[in-house]
Automatic annotation (TrEMBL):
Keywords: Glycosyltransferase, Transferase
Protein name: Soyasapogenol B glucuronide galactosyltransferase
Gene3D superfamilies (alphabetical): Glycogen Phosphorylase B
Gene Ontology molecular function, alphabetical: glycosyltransferase activity
Homology family: Belongs to the UDP-glycosyltransferase family.
Coiled-coil annotated spans: none
InterPro entries (alphabetical): UDP_glucos_trans
Length: 475
């Protein structure tokens, strides 16, 4: 979202980002840097009503370890801010509202103000096309039991893509509160001027065209926005929240990059499951053994563990061993991912198929081992493995609720086989890496003058200017 705001500011749009203090602290350095470059961008901080919802000051955002009750209170606090934010739209004399999809109420606010609303949809065009397919045709209902490995085809898509019922989100299989929220989001999308995606036409143009036709609405791919907005080392180092870690962030950056710089080109496997994923100790053991047995150098980003946690103590011993052999490097907590991925030593990545990481890996020209967990990640895996053919599936069978482990443990042999394909010298492996490099070149062209995303940004801004002129003339 912030990178999209920064790209718009790069093209002469006057941008105000509305955020609570803690959220703003995660990206303020980037905004300040852009402002110092002469771009018209700023953050307007609104105080989060922590006391009103029973939270201590400073608890406004959540991560993988946040308790469900706290998440509920944060959501309640955001609801309490609706009137204040809508009033801000008026005071700032907004000509357009760009909103995350989880704020469907902004569709009503935009309608009252008579201005366009753009909804940012995270994830791929393929994922949202797949959601629409399942919602429209319910193909999974034709399979008698969801606890089966029988596959169904996603109808109406440009490619023949198969899934099992257990790989679908639980709110699709059985309606719950999240199903209701998604219905509100889809309704707000229908009432918007259009949608924005962090994608680019050369990556999934077929699905962009399909989605626009299926939904019957405007949509613009503006990506890769990270590649576009974060052009210097300071931007890349800060993305994802280095500011939260003060000196440790800089020390970690220097240490891991120094280690990478000592390794041959394309020799290191990078392993990261994003900021919102966690594993039981039994799974961490399998991953560690697979990495050690692979024979490849690796860099693994792991979550902080309590000292008395079995997985944490096992990993500490594992870290000592691979550090002594110089075969592995463990990063505990936050990692400067953009700088890592573009380092020449990185030869491939094991990923949870979160869209930010996918786009950053595509930018860097890296093929991927796919290990989806929740949200739209199983759909993203289909794009990587079956459409783009730049991914090899580790073989995960079941979608799990966010913050829950699930019962499935992927064994070291499965992990090892996927790593062998990703990093190997067989024709399949070489071709996969070649395709990834070609997409990297296409990503760089997309944001240059005349490129697909550059053209979309210019066109979108022109349309918004025309709408403003029409309103002015009517008034």
């Amino acid at each position: 979202m912030v990178d999209i705001a920064r790209v718009l500011a790069m093209h002469g749009v006057d941008v105000t980002i509305i955020a609570s203090p803690v959220a703003a602290s995660l990206f303020q350095t980037s905004v300040d840097g852009d402002s110092s470059r002469g771009r018209s961008i700023r953050t307007h901080v609104v105080k989060f009503p922590a006391a009103e919802v029973g939270l201590p000051d400073g608890v406004e955002t959540f991560n993988v370890d946040t308790k469900p009750d706290t998440i509920f209170k944060i959501a309640k606090g955001l609801q309490l801010l609706e009137k204040e934010i809508e009033k801000l739209f008026e005071e700032l004399q907004a000509d357009c509202i760009v909103t995350d999809m989880f704020y469907p109420w902004t569709a009503d606010a935009a309608a009252r103000l008579g201005i366009p609303r753009l909804i940012f949809l995270g994830g791929s065009y393929l994922a949202h096309s797949a959601y629409h397919s399942v919602k429209t045709y319910a193909p999974h209902k034709e399979i008698e039991s969801e606890h089966t490995e029988d596959k169904f085809v996603l109808p109406g898509l440009p490619h023949r893509l198969e899934m099992t019922p257990l790989q679908l989100p639980d709110w699709i299989r059985e309606p719950n509160g999240y199903t209701y929220l998604m219905e509100m989001i889809r309704d707000s999308e229908r009432r918007s001027y259009g949608s924005l995606f962090d994608s680019f036409y050369e990556l999934e143009g077929e699905y962009q065209d399909h989605y626009k036709k299926a939904i019957g609405a405007n949509s613009w791919s503006l990506g890769p926005v990270s590649l576009w907005a974060n052009q210097d080392a300071a931007d890349k180092a800060g993305r994802g929240g280095q500011a939260r870690f003060e000196h440790r962030g800089k020390e970690e950056e220097d240490g891991c990059l120094k280690w990478l710089n000592s390794k041959p080109e394309s020799s290191v496997l990078y392993v990261s499951f994003g900021s919102m994923s966690k594993f039981p100790s039994s799974q961490l053991v399998e991953i560690a053994q697979a990495l050690e047995d692979s024979g490849h150098d690796f860099m693994w980003v792991v979550k902080k563990k309590d000292d008395d946690d079995d997985g944490g103590s096992f990993l500490k011993e594992f870290e000592k061993r691979v550090k002594a052999s110089n075969k592995g490097y463990l990063i505990w907590g936050w990692a400067p991912q953009l700088l890592i991925l573009e380092n020449p030593a990185i030869g491939g990545i094991v990923t949870h198929c979160g869209w930010n990481t996918i786009m950053e890996s595509v930018n860097a020209g890296l093929a991927m081992v796919t290990w989806p967990m929740f949200a739209e990640q199983f759909f993203n895996e289909k794009l990587l493995v079956h459409v783009l053919k730049i991914g090899v599936a580790v073989g995960v069978k079941e979608w799990k609720k966010w913050q829950e482990f699930g019962e499935e443990v992927v064994k070291k042999d499965q992990i090892g086989k996927a790593i062998d394909v990703l990093m190997g010298n067989e024709e399949e492996s070489v071709e996969m890496r070649r395709r990834a490099r070609e997409l990297s070149d296409a990503a760089k062209r997309a944001i240059q003058v005349g490129g697909s995303s550059h053209t979309n940004v210019v066109q979108l801004i022109q349309e918004l200017k025309s709408l403003k002129l029409d309103r002015t003339n009517i008034n």
